[in-house]
Structure to design on (88 residues):
């Protein structure tokens, strides 16, 4: 199992990268609709908060398995957000 600290760092890195990419998209395409990129940013922030709560949740039966599941969920959500961003 990866450390909780590294899991949180990875989460921060992934969400910050997605938010940064969304803002770069806005800068490079000033004539495009910014509501879509803002929705992606809002979703990334919400996902970040949800995953932090899941990582900090200590009321689970098997903490190691729970954190592995959270890690997989982070990867899936990140891929979904990147796909949405690439579709713009």
């Amino acid at each position: 199992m990866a450390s909780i600290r590294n899991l949180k760092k990875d989460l921060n890195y992934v969400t910050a990268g997605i938010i940064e990419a969304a803002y770069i998209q806005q800068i490079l395409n000033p004539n495009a609709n910014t509501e879509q990129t803002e929705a992606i940013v809002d979703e990334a922030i919400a996902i970040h908060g949800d995953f932090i709560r899941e990582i900090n949740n200590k009321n689970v039966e098997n903490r190691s398995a729970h954190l592995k599941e959270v890690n997989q969920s982070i990867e899936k959500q990140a891929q979904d957000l990147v796909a949405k961003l690439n579709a713009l």
In short: The chain has one domain: 4-86. The chain has three helices and no strands.
